[in-house]
């Protein structure tokens, strides 16, 4: 079975969760049409407070649906869009992709993976104890972030649940994902 989009979500206001949609329109260089995080410069409130002129490397947030099953196994019921992602995927290990990976979403849209989502304490406001499930330390002391990846839109287009995802890796040497 190939990789695919299982859900798409957006919100025009700055809140934690996003509403499920039948489709999303991705706009090149901007992000998700009508989403509060759309734009060429940063839109996340904490980043705007630091420097509003920073480029927006967080235009489209993707999370793998397999994370929801992992969370359910430890008592956290999470549905697509509830962690603020725009695109929920299946069959692709987003967290192991290198920086610069291109994801072809559906027939036309292409996003470039820019880095890892670095969730904040708002995730515990949503469900207590959830933050330690999506950010923790390995047995070797490395910080593990599981709350998805961020991306920018290279080629716009309409995407829908059920659309295929094609992965195009960048040239080597690969750069591991870092929080953005």
From TrEMBL:
GO terms for molecular function: catalytic activity; molybdenum ion binding; pyridoxal phosphate binding. SUPFAM superfamilies: PK beta-barrel domain-like. Gene3D superfamilies: PK beta-barrel domain-like. Residues 19-168 form the MOSC domain. InterPro entries: MoCF_Sase_C, MOSC_domain, Pyrv_Knase-like_insert_dom_sf. PANTHER family: METAL-SULFUR CLUSTER BIOSYNTHESIS PROTEINS YUAD-RELATED (PTHR36930), MOSC DOMAIN-CONTAINING PROTEIN (PTHR36930:SF1). This is MOSC domain-containing protein.
């Amino acid at each position: 079975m190939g990789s695919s989009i299982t859900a798409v979500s957006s919100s025009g206001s700055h809140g934690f969760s996003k509403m499920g949609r039948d489709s999303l329109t991705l706009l090149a260089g901007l992000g998700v049409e009508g989403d509060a995080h759309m734009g060429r410069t940063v839109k996340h409130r904490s980043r705007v407070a630091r420097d509003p002129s920073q480029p927006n490397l967080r235009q489209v947030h993707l999370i793998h649906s397999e994370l929801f099953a992992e969370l359910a196994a430890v008592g956290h019921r999470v549905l697509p869009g509830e962690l603020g992602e725009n695109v929920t995927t299946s069959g692709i290990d987003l967290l192991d992709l290198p920086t610069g990976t291109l994801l072809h979403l559906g027939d036309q849209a292409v996003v470039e993976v820019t880095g890892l989502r670095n969730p904040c304490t708002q995730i515990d406001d949503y469900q207590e104890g959830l933050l330690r499930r999506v950010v923790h330390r390995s047995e070797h002391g490395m910080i593990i972030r599981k709350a998805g990846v961020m991306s920018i839109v290279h080629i716009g287009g309409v995407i829908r649940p059920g659309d295929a995802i094609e992965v195009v890796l960048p040239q080597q040497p690969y750069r591991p994902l870092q929080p953005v």
